[in-house]
Amino acid sequence: MPEPHQHPNHTRSAVRSAVEHVFADQTARMGLFIRTIGLVRATVKIGLTNLAYKFRRLSGLEG
Question: Which of 19, 17, 24, 26 is nearest to 52 (CA)?
């Protein structure tokens, strides 16, 4: 890969990795599967899943 492309690619991959690990955990362990009618219901479902993930992560970090 050419030198000018390496640094931006590294930055993007770090962000992408952090987001994809959370999404993979939510889909695999928490069974997140969005099949709703309406954007509001989907947003609420994703929000509640994010909240549950953060609570589970917090309890794991605190011991």
Answer: 26
DSSP state of 63: -
User: How far apart are the C-alpha atoms of 49 and 26, rounded to whole Å?
Assistant: 7
CA distance 37 to 42: 8
- Name the stretches of the chain with pLDDT < 70: none
**Sign, CA torsion 31/33/34/36:** negative
Does residue 26 contact residue 49 with C-beta atoms inside 8 Å? yes
pTM score, whole prediction: 0.68
Tell me how far apart the alpha carbons of residues 7 and 2 are, in angstroms, rounded to a whole number.
Answer: 10
